[in-house]
Amino acid sequence: MCADKSQAVNLAQDRRKRVILDAARTLFIEKGFEQTSLDMIIARTGGSRRNIYDLFGNKEGLFEAVMKDQLGRILSGTHVPKSAEDGVSIQSQLEAIGTEFLMGLLQPTVLRTLRQFIVAAGERPDLGQQAYAAGPAVLYERLETYFSALVAEGKLDLPDVEVASRALTEMIKGGLELKAMMTGDYEVSTKQIRRQVSKAVLLFLHGALPR
Amino acid sequence: MCADKSQAVNLAQDRRKRVILDAARTLFIEKGFEQTSLDMIIARTGGSRRNIYDLFGNKEGLFEAVMKDQLGRILSGTHVPKSAEDGVSIQSQLEAIGTEFLMGLLQPTVLRTLRQFIVAAGERPDLGQQAYAAGPAVLYERLETYFSALVAEGKLDLPDVEVASRALTEMIKGGLELKAMMTGDYEVSTKQIRRQVSKAVLLFLHGALPR
DNA sequence: CTTTCGTGGTATTTGCCAGTACCGTCTTGC
DNA sequence: GCAAGACGGTACTGGCAAATACCACGAAAG
């Protein structure tokens, strides 16, 4: 009877939600929760405050919705193979994984989002935990299973796969993440990224001791 | 003539400054700039708002003073030798440096301070840049000169000393820093720290490839 | 045509807090 | 012991923004 109508309404609401989320995302990611007022968001979406309160409850609800939405967007990148591909050197594979990962991470939007998660984690621990579990933790795990496969094949020698996966991830980042978040310098050239990744992978594979 | 007096006054002011800084530090580090009101600080120091405005100008001035003060405190730790000590294996030396560094870094106070620097960097880029230059950057440099010495002696084989110093630092941290800042879990056991450091150093020295 | 619901726009309420002003008190140097 | 400046306490002001209430309009249903 009213199925058509309620569906139509839901569709309309979904569109409205998207518009608000998109506008709010830009502001929240750029300026943060405190520095963004609802009026700024409304100024971009048009419409009225009632939209926000009807759809998201309050400002905090909107913020969480935005951040969880961002989580989904960002994590869709970064592939890590389950096992070694034949015919490709491990070095090349690691470089490929690392470059893809680092290019994804060092986008200004991603870094800003990460920053906002850290800021938000102070007031809203759940959100930070969720973000960590869905972000870095997942990457570590994928890399672990990949490494386990390589170790089983005798292609790598890693006494502790967990430590190794974290180590490689971090040495690929090379502190660029922290630097960006502290200095606000979000621009890194792709050339720099490739250089960084290839050197980190070489060091990871061969170690620092002379042969 | 009034040398005594002015000095006495200065001493008194210095004491007052310290009291305010100490009280403000706890609150700023714990709750952050926005969530800390001057009334909270005054409630701990006793005294009146005039102290703060006379001594620090305004709330922001107080915050910056606190953060710079924290910088000084934290950085007084962490020694890195200029060159290799004879009779001690490189592995032991790196483990010693790494453990000291990581134990220093993973104190709740230090992590919270770092978090606040990141938060503050959004509004006050200068402060973040200063903190980065005085913190991580210094550590990297020290490690670089140390590595350069080891390479010159033929004890290490590092094509890029800068990348290597960043890599070791980051793999020693192993993402624990980021995890703490995102999840709010600031407690890491010293046992875990030693384990983490020793495995990271081994991997750094020998690499992942089988011999 | 009218009622009703969803919605845009705006005014109001409420609370918070930085910054300032004012007054009373206490210390300090003469 | 007495001026003068320093300091504690508190009230006041101004501004901002979240949350709510209220009004106006347009579209769909009866």
From TrEMBL, chains A, B:
Query: Which superkingdom heads the taxonomic lineage of this protein's source?
Result: Bacteria
Q: Which residues form the HTH tetR-type domain?
A: 14-74
Species of origin: Litoreibacter roseus
DNA-binding stretch(es), residue numbering of this chain: 37-56
For molecular function, the Gene Ontology terms on record are: DNA-binding transcription factor activity; transcription cis-regulatory region binding
Q: Which named protein is this?
A: TetR family transcriptional regulator
Q: Which InterPro entries match?
A: Homeodomain-like_sf, HTH-type_TetR-like_transc_reg, HTH_TetR, Tet_transcr_reg_TetR-rel_C_sf, TetR_C_Proteobacteria
Q: Write the record's keywords in alphabetical order, separated by commas.
A: DNA-binding
Q: Which SUPFAM superfamilies match?
A: Homeodomain-like (SSF46689), Tetracyclin repressor-like, C-terminal domain (SSF48498)
